[in-house]
Design goal:
- The complex is a heterotrimer of chains A (91), B (202) and C (980).
- Helix content of chain A is 10%, strand content 35%.
- With 91 residues, chain A is mainly β.
- Chain A has one domain (3-80): Folate-binding superfamily (Folate-binding fold, 2-Layer Sandwich), CATH 3.30.2270.10.
- In chain A, the strands form two sheets. Chain A has a four-stranded antiparallel sheet, with no helix packed on it. A two-stranded antiparallel sheet of chain A has the order 1-2.
- The mean pLDDT of chain A is 96.
- Chain B is globular.
- Chain C has 980 residues and is α+β, with helices and mostly antiparallel strands.
- Chain C is built from 24 helices and 48 strands.
- In chain C, the strands form twelve sheets. In chain C, strands 8, 9, 10, 11, 12, 13 and 26 form a seven-stranded mixed sheet that branches. In chain C, strands 38-39-40-41-37-31-42 form a seven-stranded mixed sheet.
- The model of chain C has no long low-confidence stretch (mean pLDDT 94).
- The chains are: A mainly beta (91), B alpha+beta (202), C alpha+beta (980).
- Chains in contact: A-B, A-C, B-C.
């Protein structure tokens, strides 16, 4: 079970969070067209390694926490608020 | 056509018929104290970019400093608990229907959004030397010092139920705020967890 | 058995002044406090304790700890019967009842032992090969036969009467294991000021120290020092069974299993979730077996275990002893047994003659160097051992009633390995040891540092390092045992003795060395494949004593060094955990918390038949005497259509939305527009997912310029809140919008029917209910019985209807006032079933239609979409596949024979065809259409087919019902009633 350092609440158990997927995609402009929205909703890199993800602190402060997590080791390099830009380790 | 207007009746507790006064669980020793505390509960959120204005307004009206994350503050019988960025629960002894919400709304003006949750949320308290051991049976938080202590608060989940935990003193006494529709299963978890130590429902 | 007592007069950690009585296989035995079931039975002369899993071979006690593969029993009776309990860890108490497993009719004469004779026909993988044909035999013959023949204990069939708990703990340093290393680590970390948890699976703390009278004083001092530290918590009888991400560990505390009578209010077991900043794994090492023929017979035992039975429990497990070893440490067993009164001891040392052998001979012990055991003589007990000089033919028979075996020690790396710590090969001890890992270190035997002195020093260093890692300063030094008494841990690898016969590598699952070779021969040569093919290490002991031996056999067959073959991945649980402890509080009615509306008690008192809706309990219907469920539902629905009904709709999700941009926010979340809604008016809205599918629906009311009251379906309330969080926080963080759930703040009830106005008018004060005063979709505040209410003129049933919301504490007062007011109108409470009937008749969509596969267009709701502006789902709803005119669209169906039931989920087909043209989403009997079966459906070319007939096919029940395709609006398509 992960221990996720919520930027507001501090370290909290994974059980309080809902995984909300890839945080590297940005919702396109409303007129960007079907392909852009298709990529936004469906196309994922599925990296082996560091990944920036949304973890919704549903049972806590209800904020979407940005988490830089390693998909193999589950190590967490950084967490931040929704609008933060987080540094992703090289490997 | 219209009925005459009677006085507002007392609201019914979601624990009516469940939280019955008495001593339960293991005998001997000082029992834990468990109680439902009738409270006026208001959810207050700052409008975008107005947190400073709101803090000043609340401080001016109630002498209450809205606390930072993980903390609670108390003044003039009102507790404020941080629950979300720029959002707090305010709790006070239950008064007239909607009175606290109206007062807070007046003070906040257009700097805050105010929602009455007096019926939607239920406040219970758990007090006693073994209270931390009871909490450990459902609460994933580290409630020991220095991680937690009097004046600290957290929004978390206990026995699958969303719960605001507020440590009020060093006994310790915990204020526990849960959704009213889940007050019964929460009370059942609380009392079954406390039974090992003996408890009194007040 | 001999007439001499197996229990010696003094020593060990049992209380000889007290006697404990228990039963095994119906026979009464006695032991002492401090005994395990295994030690007490050995003291009683019992050697045969079980039958093996596959071959039903007789088995005895093999170990003295949790690694035990053989001595599994059922403990307890009736509902408390717990199967597969290891005798070697079970404490005895007065009245304990244990039964051996997997034998019939009795342990001594087991009919299924005949399978041993047929063993040639049951090689590894036999399930996959033998029982393939004929296919029909699998369920009827083979599976029941295998289930009876193979298996362990019997689970209790009645509900578990005990209660269990979960608990959470946090610490700076978790020390797992309280042997020399663990005790030293806990003391060092504790004295450095760290918050320490010390978990020990045994009921006594000390591990190997319990076998060392010379170190008893140090054990006592160290324990006293630890207990005196307020920052150290000691948890005996607590097995750490799993090491999970981010230093979370799971542990099982056996709270009352060892008690004859458990105190009230105390759980039987507690499952702990421990979050540790640093972990010290002082889990010791497991002694290995050696694979020689019949190495599983009663009388064969691990050398360390034999020593433990003497030194800790005061029991001599045998009188004529043969010790088979490849290391020096095991020599102590021969000395201990002889000192305890064994008649003879012969040491068969796999290694050439060395210093340990010389020293033993000097002490008068017979040593056979460079020798090996190639078999044993005996069935349910042992009478001789066959010994052969290595590299020669022929063997010597050495009389013996106990064969002690030591193939060396493997560090217990299960937890370290679960935490993904890399394992490295240590050739000196011929075993894997854990490498470097973050926030975790192994100490003592768990990393191959053997011997009391060495382990204690290693533990103290690890404890100190762990405490320092959490920010503590180094504590004071304390006295540690010397390293002088430690034996040389070097071994000469000895895995398998080549000789004819069954040589087991996994005793519990009856896996032999030959099975491992067969797996390799059939292509399963990766260790993980060989494991699954043979079930090696897959038993409840996870191959603690033979896992590496099997790997070595595989390595030999593949011509590789064992370190390249590796061992199968370790997984939780290290030892078995009861289901009760896993479920803890969440069983029965607490399986998931039950949400109740504030009217719940009223519904109970009035006989409601409840149904689950998410976590909620909602009244399905209110049966009256003599009514069938359908009678009740039709009666309730009829009352709504003809007079007036009242329904508790408090479970609908409610969200309070405020802020300058509240209207804009809702415009972007819903496909329709809310920013144009007038204050005091409600509007129906549809919310899409970003992929264009319909997500949720509900009415939203504008209470002020910057204040909206949103309702969602009961099922989606939490999901809609999450959806709002996602967009407010990550997509449009600039909007000024605040929202929160007020689902529980407001109770709400729907009063529906042609007489609803009459009823509500009598109940409500301060409100003009005329069409001018409160038109359809109007909202106003008022009071009922003095309670504040908000009245919404909205309808789900298709009738004239009002929804009255009140702060939840007043729900009962308001509900009862409305009931009283409606008595003259014949008001009837109706449940979710009648509500469903009414909405189907009206053609309103609900959860069955909003199933995540339907678009607004499919449901005929696309006209609600705003023409301009962004909203979630707008773009992808226009994907070619979603606007394809061939997609099934929303229609109504009517059973041509009104009495013939149509089923939800039925497929709509042309008569005689198997091609599905669509499916039935909802069905009901209709009060409006003379109780006929009707339904809603999604049908290809739906509109064009209105008026035609199809067949609703439900092959699961072999049903085909002719239906007419009709408009989904069975009543009042013009909405005249709701506006009446």
């Amino acid at each position: 079970m992960h221990l996720i350092d919520c930027p507001w609440c501090g370290p909290r158990d994974e059980a309080e969070f809902a995984y909300r997927g890839d945080a590297t995609v940005t919702r396109p402009a409303p007129d960007a067209g079907i392909d852009a929205f298709y990529d936004y909703v469906f196309t994922r890199a599925n990296p082996r390694g560091w990944h920036v993800e949304w973890w919704h602190h549903a049972a806590g402060c209800r904020q979407h926490v940005k988490v830089v997590r390693h998909t193999m080791t589950h190590a967490i390099a950084a967490t931040g608020r929704a609008t933060d830009i987080l540094e992703v380790p090289a490997a | 056509m219209s009925a005459p207007e009677p006085a507002v009746p007392a609201p019914r507790s979601p624990l009516a018929g469940v939280a019955t006064t008495g001593r339960y669980g293991a005998a001997g020793g000082t029992p834990l104290a468990i109680a439902e505390i009738p409270a006026a509960i208001v959810q207050l959120a700052a409008r975008r970019g107005r947190a400073g204005d709101l803090a000043r307004a609340v401080s001016g009206a109630f002498g209450l400093d809205l606390p930072p994350p993980g903390r609670a503050a108390s003044a003039r019988g009102i507790d404020a608990i941080w629950i979300q960025p720029d959002a707090w629960l305010l709790l006070a002894p239950r008064g007239a229907e909607g009175a606290l919400a109206a007062e807070v709304k007046r003070a906040a003006g257009d700097a805050g959004s105010v929602v009455d949750q007096s019926h939607g949320k239920t406040l219970m308290s758990l007090a006693g030397a073994a209270a931390r051991r009871v909490m450990a049976k459902g609460c994933r938080l580290d409630l020991d010092a220095p991680a937690f202590g009097p004046g600290r608060a957290a929004v978390t989940q206990i026995a699958q139920i969303g719960c605001v935990v507020h440590q009020r003193d060093a006994i310790p006494t915990y204020g526990l705020v849960v959704p009213s529709s889940l007050a019964i299963p929460f009370f059942e978890w609380l009392t079954s967890s406390a039974a090992e130590f003996g408890y009194e429902v007040g | 058995m001999t007439g001499r007592a197996f229990r010696i007069a003094g020593g060990g950690h049992i209380d000889r002044s007290r006697t404990v009585r228990f039963r095994f296989d119906g026979k009464e035995h006695s032991g002492h406090p401090g005994d395990t079931l295994a030690s007490a039975l050995l003291a009683a002369g019992v050697r045969l304790v079980g039958r093996s899993f596959k071959y039903h071979r007789p088995r005895g006690i093999y170990s003295a700890g949790p690694e035990e593969p053989n001595a599994l029993v059922e403990i307890g009776t009736g509902a408390r019967r717990t199967p597969n309990t290891r005798m070697t860890t079970a404490e005895i108490h007065d009245g304990l009842v244990a039964e051996s497993q997997n034998r019939w009719p009795s342990l001594r004469f087991d009919a299924m032992a005949a399978t041993s004779v047929a063993a040639r026909l049951l090689p590894a993988g036999f399930y996959y090969k033998t029982f393939m044909w004929p296919a029909s035999f699998w369920e009827k013959v083979y599976e029941p036969m295998i289930r009876r023949a193979a298996g362990l204990g019997r689970a209790a069939t009645e509900p578990d009467p005990d209660h269990y708990e979960a608990a959470h703990a946090h610490c700076d340093v978790l020390v797992v294991g309280a042997g020399a290393a663990g005790l030293a680590a806990a003391r060092a970390a504790g004295e450095a000021g760290a918050r320490v948890l010390l978990a020990e699976q045994d009921f006594l703390l000390g591990g190997g120290l319990l076998l060392e009278p010379a170190h008893e004083a140090w054990r006592g001092e160290t324990l006293a020092a630890i207990i005196a530290l307020p920052n150290v918590t000691v948890m005996p009888r607590t097995t750490v069974f799993g090491y999970y991400d981010h230093n979370m560990l799971g542990a099982l505390e056996r709270v009352t299993d060892h008690l004859a009578t458990a105190p009230d209010h105390v759980p039987r077991q507690r499952s702990w979730t421990i979050r540790a900043r640093e972990v010290v794994l002082a889990t010791g090492a497991d002694e290995r077996l050696v694979a020689f023929p019949d190495n599983d017979r009663p009388g064969v035992m691990l050398a360390g275990a034999a020593r433990a039975y003497v030194a800790r429990f005061g029991v001599v497990p045998g009188r004529r002893v043969v010790l088979f070893t490849n290391n020096d440490a095991a020599y102590a067993t021969a000395d201990t047994l002889l000192a305890a009164g064994a008649d003879s001891a012969t040491i068969v040392d796999f290694r050439p003659f060395g210093t340990a052998a010389a020293a033993a001979r000097a002490r008068g012990i017979e040593v056979l160097p460079g020798s090996e055991v190639i078999g044993v003589d005996g069935g349910t007990s042992l009478y001789a051992v066959q010994v052969r000089r290595r590299g020669t033919w022929g063997s010597t028979q050495v009389p013996a009633d106990l064969l002690c075996v030591s193939g060396g020690y493997s560090p217990a790396v299960h937890l370290a390995s679960q935490a993904r710590t890399p394992l490295a090969w240590d050739a000196r001890i011929a075993a894997f040891v854990p490498g470097e890992a973050a926030r975790q270190r192994s100490a003592g035997g768990a990393r191959g540092v053997f011997g009391i002195g060495a382990a204690a020093h290693d533990g103290a260093a690890a404890g100190r390092a762990a405490a320092i890692a959490t920010g503590c300063r180094v504590g004071s030094e304390f006295v540690l045992p010397g390293r002088n008494g430690d034996a040389d841990p070097t071994v000469m690898p000895c895995w398998e003795i080549a000789a004819p016969g069954k040589a087991f590598v996994d005793l519990q699952n009856d896996v032999t060395a030959a099975d491992i070779r067969l797996a390799r021969q059939e292509g399963y040569e990766h260790i993980e494949h060989a494991k699954r093919y043979t079930t090696h290490t897959m038993a409840t002991d996870q191959g603690k004593i033979g896992g590496l031996v099997g790997a070595a056999v595989l390595a030999e067959a593949r011509g590789l060094p064992v370190e390249q073959v590796g061992i199968p991945t370790y997984r939780p649980y290290v030892t078995p955990v009861t289901w009760g402890a896993v479920a803890a509080h969440h069983v029965g009615k607490a399986f998931a918390p039950i949400r109740r509306t504030m009217l719940h008690d009223w519904h109970v008192r009035n006989g409601a038949d409840f149904m689950e809706a998410g976590l909620w309990l909602r009244p399905g219907f209110y049966p009256q005497k003599g009514e069938s469920p359908w009678d009740s539902v039709l009666r309730e629905a009829r009352a709504v259509r003809r007079a007036v009904g009242i329904c508790d709709v408090s479970t609908l999700g409610k969200i309070d939305v405020q802020g300058k941009d509240a209207g804009v926010f809702l415009d972007r979340l819903y496909m329709n527009t809310f920013s144009t809604l007038a204050i005091g008016k409600a509007r129906y809205g549809i919310m899409l997912r970003e992929d264009g599918m319909v997500f949720d629906d509900g009415t939203t009311t504008r209470l002020a310029e910057d204040h909206f009251f949103v309702t969602t379906t009961t099922a989606n309330a939490a999901r809609v809140m999450e959806h709002m969080d996602l967009y407010a926080q990550t997509v449009w963080p600039d909007l000024d919008v605040q929202y929160c759930s007020v689902t529980d703040q407001w109770a709400s009830m729907s009063i529906a029917g042609p007489k609803a106005r009459s009823t509500v008018a009598r109940a409500v004060a301060g409100l003009d209910l005329s069409n001018e005063g409160l038109p359809f979709m109007g909202v106003a505040d008022a009071t009922v019985a003095g309670c504040p209410v908000r009245v919404f003129r909205i309808s789900f049933s298709g009738e004239l209807a009002y929804e009255i919301a009140t702060p939840a504490g007043y729900a009962l007062a308001v509900w009862e006032a409305v009931l009283a007011a409606g008595r003259a109108d014949g008001i009837v409470p109706y449940g979710v079933e009648a509500l469903g009937l009414l909405r189907i008749e009206k053609g309103h969509v609900a959860g069955s239609e909003l199933n995540g596969h339907t678009t607004a267009r499919d449901l005929g709701l696309d006209r609600m979409a705003k023409k301009r502006g962004d909203f979630v789902g707008r773009v992808l709803a226009e994907r070619p596949g979603l606007v394809d005119p061939g997609r099934p669209t929303f229609v109504g169906i009517r059973s041509v024979d009104p009495k013939r039931q149509v089923r939800q989920g039925a497929h709509l087909v042309e008569p005689g065809s198997f091609k599905s043209l669509g499916w039935v989403s909802s069905v009901t009997r209709s009060v409006e259409l003379g109780d006929a079966w009707i339904g809603l459906a999604l049908l290809t070319d739906g509109k064009a087919r209105i008026g035609s007939r199809l067949v609703a096919a439900f092959p699961l029940k072999d049903e085909a019902v002719e239906v007419e395709i009709v408009s989904p609006h069975f009543i009042d398509p013009e909405n005249a009633r709701v506006r009446a």
